[in-house]
Protein backbone atom coordinates (compact mmCIF):
# COMPACT_ATOMS: atom_id res chain seq x y z
CA UNK A 1 0.00 0.00 0.00
CA UNK A 2 1.25 3.47 -0.93
CA UNK A 3 0.02 6.69 0.63
CA UNK A 4 0.38 10.44 0.34
CA UNK A 5 -0.68 12.67 3.24
CA UNK A 6 -1.96 16.23 2.86
CA UNK A 7 -2.47 17.96 6.19
CA UNK A 8 -5.19 20.60 6.39
CA UNK A 9 -2.79 23.44 7.33
CA UNK A 10 -0.54 22.65 4.34
CA UNK A 11 -3.31 23.20 1.79
CA UNK A 12 -3.31 26.23 -0.45
CA UNK A 13 -5.29 29.12 1.03
CA UNK A 14 -6.80 32.31 -0.33
CA UNK A 15 -8.98 34.91 1.38
CA UNK A 16 -10.94 37.32 -0.80
CA UNK A 17 -13.22 38.86 1.83
CA UNK A 18 -16.36 37.24 0.45
CA UNK A 19 -14.58 33.90 -0.08
CA UNK A 20 -12.35 31.91 2.29
CA UNK A 21 -11.02 28.93 0.33
CA UNK A 22 -8.59 26.06 0.84
CA UNK A 23 -7.18 24.02 -2.06
CA UNK A 24 -6.06 20.42 -1.52
CA UNK A 25 -4.57 20.39 -5.03
CA UNK A 26 -3.04 23.14 -7.18
CA UNK A 27 -5.70 25.66 -8.15
CA UNK A 28 -5.82 29.33 -9.16
CA UNK A 29 -2.79 31.07 -7.59
CA UNK A 30 -1.82 28.03 -5.49
CA UNK A 31 0.67 25.78 -7.24
CA UNK A 32 2.58 22.81 -5.87
CA UNK A 33 4.14 20.49 -8.48
CA UNK A 34 3.67 17.57 -6.08
CA UNK A 35 -0.03 18.31 -5.66
CA UNK A 36 -1.48 18.64 -9.12
CA UNK A 37 -3.97 15.78 -8.84
CA UNK A 38 -4.53 12.33 -7.36
CA UNK A 39 -5.19 10.08 -10.32
CA UNK A 40 -8.35 11.34 -12.01
CA UNK A 41 -9.16 13.55 -9.01
CA UNK A 42 -8.14 17.08 -10.03
CA UNK A 43 -9.65 19.51 -7.51
CA UNK A 44 -10.89 19.39 -3.91
CA UNK A 45 -11.75 22.94 -2.86
CA UNK A 46 -13.13 23.74 0.60
CA UNK A 47 -15.04 27.01 0.10
CA UNK A 48 -16.75 29.29 2.62
CA UNK A 49 -18.82 32.07 1.01
CA UNK A 50 -20.25 34.94 3.03
CA UNK A 51 -23.95 35.82 2.96
CA UNK A 52 -25.31 37.01 -0.37
CA UNK A 53 -21.98 36.62 -2.20
CA UNK A 54 -20.70 34.06 -4.68
CA UNK A 55 -19.06 33.10 -7.93
CA UNK A 56 -20.34 35.01 -10.95
CA UNK A 57 -21.08 33.32 -14.25
CA UNK A 58 -18.03 31.43 -15.51
CA UNK A 59 -17.33 28.60 -17.99
CA UNK A 60 -16.29 24.95 -17.67
CA UNK A 61 -15.72 22.18 -20.18
CA UNK A 62 -14.67 18.51 -20.15
CA UNK A 63 -14.77 18.10 -16.39
CA UNK A 64 -17.03 16.24 -13.97
CA UNK A 65 -17.94 18.65 -11.16
CA UNK A 66 -19.37 17.54 -7.82
CA UNK A 67 -20.59 19.99 -5.14
CA UNK A 68 -21.30 18.91 -1.56
CA UNK A 69 -22.69 21.57 0.83
CA UNK A 70 -21.61 21.06 4.44
CA UNK A 71 -23.74 23.84 5.91
CA UNK A 72 -25.77 26.69 4.48
CA UNK A 73 -27.56 27.00 1.14
CA UNK A 74 -25.87 27.26 -2.26
CA UNK A 75 -27.84 28.66 -5.21
CA UNK A 76 -26.85 27.41 -8.67
CA UNK A 77 -27.79 28.81 -12.09
CA UNK A 78 -26.49 27.49 -15.41
CA UNK A 79 -26.71 27.86 -19.17
CA UNK A 80 -28.82 24.67 -19.36
CA UNK A 81 -31.64 26.55 -17.64
CA UNK A 82 -31.32 25.12 -14.14
CA UNK A 83 -31.87 27.29 -11.07
CA UNK A 84 -31.50 25.20 -7.91
CA UNK A 85 -30.64 25.59 -4.23
CA UNK A 86 -28.39 22.86 -2.78
CA UNK A 87 -28.43 22.24 0.97
CA UNK A 88 -26.55 20.08 3.47
CA UNK A 89 -27.42 16.45 2.80
CA UNK A 90 -27.73 17.09 -0.93
CA UNK A 91 -25.16 16.55 -3.69
CA UNK A 92 -24.92 18.13 -7.13
CA UNK A 93 -23.15 16.76 -10.21
CA UNK A 94 -22.45 18.45 -13.53
CA UNK A 95 -20.86 17.02 -16.65
CA UNK A 96 -19.40 20.12 -18.29
CA UNK A 97 -18.67 18.23 -21.53
CA UNK A 98 -18.72 20.47 -24.60
CA UNK A 99 -19.11 23.53 -22.38
CA UNK A 100 -21.39 25.19 -19.86
CA UNK A 101 -21.52 28.43 -17.90
CA UNK A 102 -22.85 28.66 -14.37
CA UNK A 103 -22.87 30.76 -11.21
CA UNK A 104 -22.93 29.81 -7.53
CA UNK A 105 -24.16 32.12 -4.79
CA UNK A 106 -24.91 31.95 -1.10
CA UNK A 107 -28.69 32.25 -1.10
CA UNK A 108 -28.74 33.50 2.51
CA UNK A 109 -27.88 37.13 3.25
CA UNK A 110 -26.95 36.65 6.90
CA UNK A 111 -25.11 33.33 7.18
CA UNK A 112 -22.20 31.65 5.33
CA UNK A 113 -22.27 28.54 3.18
CA UNK A 114 -19.45 25.96 3.27
CA UNK A 115 -19.16 23.44 0.46
CA UNK A 116 -16.70 21.11 -1.22
CA UNK A 117 -16.28 21.65 -4.94
CA UNK A 118 -14.61 18.62 -6.50
CA UNK A 119 -13.43 18.12 -10.09
CA UNK A 120 -12.78 14.73 -11.69
CA UNK A 121 -11.27 14.23 -15.14
CA UNK A 122 -13.86 12.46 -17.35
CA UNK A 123 -13.33 9.25 -19.29
CA UNK A 124 -15.27 10.70 -22.23
CA UNK A 125 -14.69 14.13 -23.75
CA UNK A 126 -17.12 16.49 -25.44
CA UNK A 127 -20.24 14.82 -24.06
CA UNK A 128 -23.54 16.66 -23.88
CA UNK A 129 -23.55 18.80 -20.71
CA UNK A 130 -25.83 17.55 -17.95
CA UNK A 131 -26.94 18.42 -14.43
CA UNK A 132 -28.36 16.37 -11.56
CA UNK A 133 -29.00 16.83 -7.86
CA UNK A 134 -30.19 14.51 -5.12
CA UNK A 135 -30.64 14.32 -1.36
CA UNK A 136 -29.03 11.54 0.66
CA UNK A 137 -29.39 10.31 4.24
CA UNK A 138 -25.69 10.51 5.16
CA UNK A 139 -26.40 13.30 7.66
CA UNK A 140 -28.62 11.02 9.78
CA UNK A 141 -27.07 7.62 8.99
CA UNK A 142 -24.42 6.48 11.50
CA UNK A 143 -21.64 3.92 11.19
CA UNK A 144 -22.22 3.27 7.50
CA UNK A 145 -20.75 4.57 4.26
CA UNK A 146 -23.35 6.01 1.89
CA UNK A 147 -22.55 6.03 -1.82
CA UNK A 148 -23.39 9.40 -3.34
CA UNK A 149 -21.69 9.20 -6.77
CA UNK A 150 -20.78 6.34 -9.10
CA UNK A 151 -20.12 5.57 -12.77
CA UNK A 152 -22.90 5.78 -15.32
CA UNK A 153 -22.41 2.19 -16.49
CA UNK A 154 -22.25 0.54 -13.05
CA UNK A 155 -25.48 -1.51 -12.79
CA UNK A 156 -25.28 -1.46 -8.99
CA UNK A 157 -25.08 2.35 -8.83
CA UNK A 158 -28.20 3.89 -7.33
CA UNK A 159 -26.53 7.25 -6.66
CA UNK A 160 -25.71 10.20 -8.91
CA UNK A 161 -23.50 9.30 -11.85
CA UNK A 162 -20.54 10.82 -13.68
CA UNK A 163 -18.48 10.01 -16.77
CA UNK A 164 -15.67 8.24 -14.89
CA UNK A 165 -15.03 4.96 -13.08
CA UNK A 166 -15.19 6.84 -9.78
CA UNK A 167 -17.18 6.24 -6.61
CA UNK A 168 -17.85 8.76 -3.83
CA UNK A 169 -18.87 7.57 -0.35
CA UNK A 170 -19.49 9.59 2.80
CA UNK A 171 -20.21 8.37 6.31
CA UNK A 172 -20.51 9.51 9.92
CA UNK A 173 -19.11 7.19 12.61
CA UNK A 174 -19.07 6.81 16.39
CA UNK A 175 -15.76 6.71 18.20
CA UNK A 176 -14.01 3.34 17.94
CA UNK A 177 -16.04 2.05 14.98
CA UNK A 178 -13.90 0.41 12.31
CA UNK A 179 -14.98 -0.08 8.72
CA UNK A 180 -13.19 -1.64 5.77
CA UNK A 181 -13.56 -0.01 2.40
CA UNK A 182 -13.04 -2.18 -0.68
CA UNK A 183 -11.58 -0.26 -3.60
CA UNK A 184 -14.06 -0.66 -6.42
CA UNK A 185 -11.85 -1.29 -9.44
CA UNK A 186 -8.38 -2.68 -10.04
CA UNK A 187 -5.98 0.21 -10.70
CA UNK A 188 -8.03 2.67 -8.67
CA UNK A 189 -6.90 4.46 -5.53
CA UNK A 190 -8.96 6.21 -2.88
CA UNK A 191 -8.58 9.72 -1.52
CA UNK A 192 -9.91 10.15 2.02
CA UNK A 193 -10.90 13.62 3.28
CA UNK A 194 -11.92 14.14 6.91
CA UNK A 195 -15.02 16.32 7.00
CA UNK A 196 -15.42 16.35 10.79
CA UNK A 197 -13.65 14.74 13.75
CA UNK A 198 -10.64 12.42 13.57
CA UNK A 199 -9.79 9.07 11.97
CA UNK A 200 -6.90 6.63 11.67
CA UNK A 201 -6.24 4.98 8.31
CA UNK A 202 -3.34 2.55 7.90
CA UNK A 203 -1.61 3.94 10.97
CA UNK A 204 -1.94 7.55 9.76
CA UNK A 205 -3.79 9.91 12.07
CA UNK A 206 -6.17 12.25 10.23
CA UNK A 207 -7.76 15.35 11.70
CA UNK A 208 -10.29 17.91 10.51
CA UNK A 209 -9.88 18.44 6.73
CA UNK A 210 -6.71 16.32 6.47
CA UNK A 211 -6.49 14.23 3.32
CA UNK A 212 -4.84 10.88 2.56
CA UNK A 213 -4.37 9.32 -0.87
CA UNK A 214 -4.05 5.51 -0.87
CA UNK A 215 -3.25 3.17 -3.75
CA UNK A 216 -1.66 -0.18 -4.59
CA UNK A 217 -4.06 -1.96 -2.25
CA UNK A 218 -7.42 -3.70 -2.52
CA UNK A 219 -8.94 -2.38 0.71
CA UNK A 220 -8.53 0.23 3.41
CA UNK A 221 -9.33 -0.04 7.13
CA UNK A 222 -10.76 3.14 8.63
CA UNK A 223 -11.21 3.77 12.37
CA UNK A 224 -13.14 6.70 13.84
CA UNK A 225 -11.23 8.30 16.73
CA UNK A 226 -14.00 10.69 17.82
CA UNK A 227 -17.78 10.65 17.94
CA UNK A 228 -19.63 12.21 15.00
CA UNK A 229 -16.57 11.69 12.82
CA UNK A 230 -17.42 12.15 9.15
CA UNK A 231 -15.27 11.10 6.20
CA UNK A 232 -15.49 11.44 2.42
CA UNK A 233 -13.91 8.73 0.23
CA UNK A 234 -13.22 9.39 -3.47
CA UNK A 235 -12.31 6.21 -5.38
CA UNK A 236 -10.71 7.11 -8.75
CA UNK A 237 -8.52 5.60 -11.49
CA UNK A 238 -4.84 6.29 -10.91
CA UNK A 239 -4.18 6.13 -14.67
CA UNK A 240 -6.77 7.66 -16.96
Describe this structure in words.
- The chain has no helices and 22 strands.
- By secondary structure, the protein is mainly β.
- The chain has a seven-stranded mixed sheet with strand order 1-20-17-22-15-13-14, with no helix packed on it. Strands 2-3-4-11-6-9-12 form a seven-stranded antiparallel sheet, with no helix packed on it.
- It is globular.
- The mean pLDDT is 96.
Unreliable runs: none
SS elements, strand count = 22
The CATH homologous superfamily name equals Jelly Rolls
What is the radius of gyration computed over CA atoms, rounded to a whole number of angstroms? 17 Å
Helical content, roughly?
under 10%
String of helices and strands: EEEEEEEEEEEEEEEEEEEEEE
Strands of the biggest beta sheet: in what spatial order? Answer: 1-20-17-22-15-13-14
Task: Return the average pLDDT rounded to an integer.
Answer: 96
- What spatial form do the alpha-carbon principal axes imply? globular
Termini distance? 20 Å
Short note summarizing the structure:
By secondary structure, the chain is an all-beta fold. The protein has no helices and 22 strands. The protein has one domain: Jelly Rolls (Sandwich), CATH 2.60.120.10.
Amino acid sequence: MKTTFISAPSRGHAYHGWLDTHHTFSFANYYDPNRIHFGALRVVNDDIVTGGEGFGTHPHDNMEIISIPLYGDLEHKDSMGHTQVIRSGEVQVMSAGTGITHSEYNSNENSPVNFFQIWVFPNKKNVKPRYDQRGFDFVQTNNKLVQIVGPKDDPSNTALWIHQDAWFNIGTFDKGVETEYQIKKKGNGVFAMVVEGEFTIGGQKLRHRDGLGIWDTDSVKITADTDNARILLIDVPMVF
